[in-house]
């Protein structure tokens, strides 16, 4: 491991090359670069999740921490390691101070693995518009987590307004297990669903995306009601001869109930952040099913048909601090 | 409306976050207390359950001759197997969930009452577990027991899809016969009871991730296919080496030998996958069409004496241990002429492969366990260097490592750094597990899942099996009555095998 204080981007590139030589293997099977954008106070959590995901998909891990944008002098500290505490792959943690934080791409671009896809993940509150963050503009896949925002549903609405193919949100990843079980419950059935109900806090963005998905797929009204306990507790779909339901049984499993068949218990794990990111890294192409679900929930039409291209929009948070935050424009270019 | 799959409105072919689950079904295992079932099948079923890849209505139904009155002792037995053999971590909750879907029917194969009970149990499972009449029967039993079991299934209507109201499939393990004649008999026997499309012959090598990667390597890239022919390829070596001896399979092995045990199925399948033309689509029927074309085109050397070598290991040292010779193994007659090593040169009589020798070898008690396909390319027709500059330059090679360390190696010449011009071989390695380290599923997991999904792509069919025997039978005939060459345990086979390649101006690659 090499730690560099008050350094430059080129020094980081050199340190990485030196570490690679020292590790003895110049031909790493790198499949992608994962850029993690995180606040200082959450670095440990993001690091451990990214390390978990990197164990499943060896990647170059670039963790970008932007600090004290108002610091008078720009400064870069970096920690370069291969096969160290940040998992088996190559990892660089960079702390950027002052105006450098607004130009993080100048340090990150030369560090991207050559010609491999880039995934950018905002660990904390997502940017209001991804085009404001240059680290999102060059990424092939962008992963946000609206549940980290103060107002998750508001943040999810922003994601719909700002959507471009290649975006996904961890609120969507969190319901893959639920969707798997519900789809399994409908395998081999030919009946027409009438309406659906999700037992969850209506302010839960995952539950809302789940509802959006059901509306998009089944074309029936879906209600999110209940609350109290955290997370989704059950989903029920009314069909001709009764109800098809998936209910959470315990933290690892759920129960499938269908008319005329005894209930079955199947795995329904609550994934930790590392598992969620591992699922995100599995596919680098865009997720059209997510786009449909988000469109059905938000009412913004045809999200999947948008262009996946974004142009960086310069925005200086120092000036924004004085002026009110601009509303995002209706659609991506 | 967005596209749907299989009539389920919640399934979208674009939705790749949702795993494809099989229909509600039962997996019935005959000989469930046997070696294979203990070490592979039951752990694979547990792993599938743990990964959430089993359908909501799933039952594992065991059938064996054991004095177990109810399901409990079998569940206990299965739990031990899963704990020992599973790849994924053993979890109490997963197990409890699976245990409620494990049933057992005791009985022997000639016991009519037992099969009636089995049929009743299966019918009962429709109500209690919602299996909708779907069942796959795994015959984990010696081939000699096939006729009686199949007859029982026919008698009790177990194989009758119409009566059951769902699909009925049967899974057969190798050996698929011991020559072409017996394979044909076996095939017609199984096909009579089940339809040919419902018979799944397991060759677990085809379930390995790298073998499927061979498709991706060849047909998803432009880089390799143009040079995948006799104009550029010098020769192909397919090796399956094992460091273990015959273990506890003495009786079976002494009757079978390396050629029937490995060459006839695994190696010829790998050869077919390496040499086949591009299938018109990625489906079971189209891939089989191409594989059978290659197997039909395989030719044997005319000089079997020199190009079909078999060996038998003698005592020696392997990995720091002294090991006994084959004739010294327990239950092996001291006069046995069964081979534990076989190497053969095959040709493929097609425009693409004419003149390219395919060297196949397999053996037990070789220095390490490795399976690989090595494609050796021709040397450049002209080298614009001084002869001394390229003395260390060999053939370019593309090696597909099937196990262990699944991956691909590309060997090519590179300049040695320095002021002198010197070209030497270097290797570029791609480790499958490094770029994509999702814990690779065990071959049996994949294959059991495919059986339940009805996906026959990775299973050889009748014609392939019979065609493979057409290739092996003359070899066995030639070898009958001859003594195999001895080789020291822990060495790479008998010297005669090395001479076979030396005669052609080549040498075996050390894997």
Would you give an account of this structure?
The complex is a heterodimer of chains A (about 325) and B (about 500). In chain A, strands 1-4-5-3-2-6-7-8 form an 8-stranded mixed β-sheet. In chain A, strands 10-9-11-12-13-14 form a 6-stranded mixed β-sheet, with helices on one face. Chain A has about 325 residues and is α/β, with parallel strands linked by helices. Chain A has 2 domains: about 1-175 and about 305-320, no CATH class; about 175-265. Helix content of chain A is about 30%, strand content about 25%. Chain A is elongated and about 70 Å long. In chain B, helix 1 crosses helix 13. Helices cover about 35% and strands about 20% of the residues of chain B. In chain B, strands 7, 8, 9, 12, 13, 14, 15, 16, 17 and 18 form a 10-stranded mixed β-sheet that branches. The chains are: A alpha/beta (about 325), B alpha/beta (about 500). Chains A and B meet through helix 7, helix 8, strand 13, strand 14 and helix 10 of A and helix 3 and strand 17 of B. Chain A: This is Glucose-6-phosphate dehydrogenase assembly protein OpcA. Chain A: InterPro entries: G6PDH_assembly_OpcA (IPR004555), OpcA_G6PD_C (IPR046802), OpcA_G6PD_N (IPR046801). Chain B: It catalyses: D-glucose 6-phosphate + NADP(+) = 6-phospho-D-glucono-1,5-lactone + NADPH + H(+). Chain B: Its EC number is 1.1.1.49.
